[in-house]
């Protein structure tokens, strides 16, 4: 209980699974006492996931090119076309990295890249079908609405045609990447050449109705207001309402009757290095944790909430497990995009499991669709592979490149 009856009543409704309005979410974000807010959010987690399980994933983020025409101000990863540091990996290198990931127990790859001026739908069809053919056991949870809009434009086809073609080629799930801030003002301020938030959501809605589920992200800390943060999640919740109302499912789990659309929400914090924004604004740890809790209460129609230990650090990631989070995300065998901007937190399989267990939860490895692959009820159930560590080959890290000094690249000039 708090000293404010209005806040008490909203917290209680949210904890019980009732819907809270954007205005109420903003009031909670700015004024609710921290412990009461966290307790209400954790009540939602306990109701949604009464088994006490917190999940993690083994995957690898593989970047096919850093060449991009969109020049987002917060991005440290991209290089403009013809820049001397621009690169694209040939297919053999991408497949080589997928093979390494499989050897380390990965169940998913996230193929991400810049908006290369020459990459239309056919490039992505080849990319996904090649990976699927070589490693059918890997789920391809990749690209985002921005890449889909870009490839559709390059190829001169509709969003729907692009989605259907890349799905047929092997794409299993769309990553929530590129959401950053969806409301117009903050989006234009940090990514003036990117599609609008409305277009980002339109692509997701097309994918959802065609049986491709996805995640949704948010990047905090580039000068957006509290109200704009809440507006971002309001926009996502409205699109998820469509998925629920229309009974959209993911094609892969239709038989299990699970709801499609957005499977998870993943807020993360802007990283300050090597980009045009230069870290003039950043989200504080408390802002992040309060937003995690508010998100859990606000999203009455999204199953999972993921902590971003890569950007906030492992202690904060673990603390988030007490504020409604039920997933620690990936071990990230490789990550170059956010790492380029300064996110240097690393972990390993044992540590991720330890973080979950010492938070009083039961660790479980999951797949892309959040199905449990191995539940580690006691330490005797824990996996023992010491090789499963973060960034074992990130090019953004010193000594990266999968142990090789030279990365094979194709000429993009
Ligand atoms: S965030 Fe993506 S779209 Fe924006 S500049 Fe970086 S690579 Fe390009």
Structural features, described:
There is one protein chain. The protein is an alpha/beta fold. It has one domain: Alpha-Beta Barrel (TIM Barrel), CATH 3.20.20.70. The protein is 39% helix and 12% strand. The chain is built from 15 helices and eleven strands. The protein has a four-stranded mixed beta sheet. Strands 2-3-4-5 form a four-stranded parallel beta sheet, with helices on one face. The protein has a three-stranded parallel beta sheet with strand order 6-7-8. Strand 7, helix 11 (285-298) and strand 8 form a beta-alpha-beta unit. 50% of the residues are buried.
The biggest beta sheet is recorded as:
4 strands, mixed
Radius of gyration: 20 Å
Regarding CATH, which class? Alpha Beta
What count of structural domains? 1
Question: What class, by secondary structure content?
Answer: alpha/beta
**DSSP strand count:** 11
Region (Disordered): 393-413
Keywords: 4Fe-4S, Iron, Iron-sulfur, Menaquinone biosynthesis, Metal-binding, Oxidoreductase, S-adenosyl-L-methionine
Pfam families: CofH_C, Radical_SAM
Catalytic activity: dehypoxanthine futalosine + S-adenosyl-L-methionine = cyclic dehypoxanthinylfutalosinate + 5'-deoxyadenosine + L-methionine + H(+)
Structure in a nutshell:
The protein has 413 residues and is α/β, with parallel strands linked by helices. It has a single domain, classed as Aldolase class I (TIM Barrel, Alpha-Beta Barrel), CATH 3.20.20.70. Helix 2 runs antiparallel to helix 11, helix 4 packs parallel to helix 5 and helix 6 packs across helix 7.
């Amino acid at each position: 209980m708090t000293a404010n009856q209005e806040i008490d009543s909203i917290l209680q409704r949210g904890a019980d699974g009732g819907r809270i309005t954007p205005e109420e979410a903003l009031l909670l974000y700015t004024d609710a006492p921290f412990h009461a807010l966290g307790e209400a959010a954790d009540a939602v987690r306990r109701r949604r996931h009464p088994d006490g399980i917190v999940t993690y994933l083994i995957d690898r983020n593989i970047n096919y090119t850093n060449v991009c025409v969109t020049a987002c101000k917060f991005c440290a990863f991209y290089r403009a076309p013809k820049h001397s540091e621009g690169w694209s990996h040939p297919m053999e290198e991408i497949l080589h990295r997928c093979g390494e990931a499989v050897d380390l127990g990965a169940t998913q790859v996230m193929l991400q890249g810049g908006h290369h001026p020459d990459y239309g739908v056919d490039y992505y069809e080849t990319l996904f079908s090649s990976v699927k053919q070589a490693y059918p056991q890997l789920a391809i949870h990749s690209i985002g609405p921005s890449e889909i809009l870009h490839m559709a434009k390059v190829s001169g086809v509709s969003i729907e045609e692009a989605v259907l073609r890349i799905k047929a080629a092997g794409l299993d799930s769309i990553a929530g990447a590129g959401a950053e801030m969806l409301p117009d003002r903050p989006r234009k301020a940090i990514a003036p050449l990117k599609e609008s938030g409305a277009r980002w959501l339109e692509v997701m809605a097309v994918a959802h109705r065609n049986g491709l589920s996805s995640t949704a992200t948010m990047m905090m800390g580039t000068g957006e207001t509290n109200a704009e943060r809440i507006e971002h999640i309001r926009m996502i919740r409205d699109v998820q309402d469509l998925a629920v109302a229309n009974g959209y499912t993911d094609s892969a789990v239709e038989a299990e009757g699970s709801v499609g659309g957005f499977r998870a929400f993943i807020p993360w914090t802007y990283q300050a290095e090597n980009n045009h924004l230069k870290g003039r604004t950043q989200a504080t740890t408390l802002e992040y944790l309060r937003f995690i809790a508010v998100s859990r209460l606000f999203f009455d129609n999204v199953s999972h909430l993921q902590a971003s230990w890569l950007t906030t650090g492992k202690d904060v990631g673990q603390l988030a497990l007490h504020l409604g989070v039920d997933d620690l995300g990936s071990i990230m065998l490789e990550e170059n995009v956010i790492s380029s901007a300064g996110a240097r937190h690393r972990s390993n399989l044992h540590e991720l499991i330890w973080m979950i267990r010492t938070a009083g939860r039961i660790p479980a490895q999951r797949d892309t669709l959040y199905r449990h692959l191995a539940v580690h009820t006691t330490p005797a159930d824990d996996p023992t592979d010491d090789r499963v560590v973060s960034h074992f080959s990130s090019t953004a890290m010193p000594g990266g490149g999968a142990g090789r000094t030279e990365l094979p690249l194709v000429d993009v000039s």
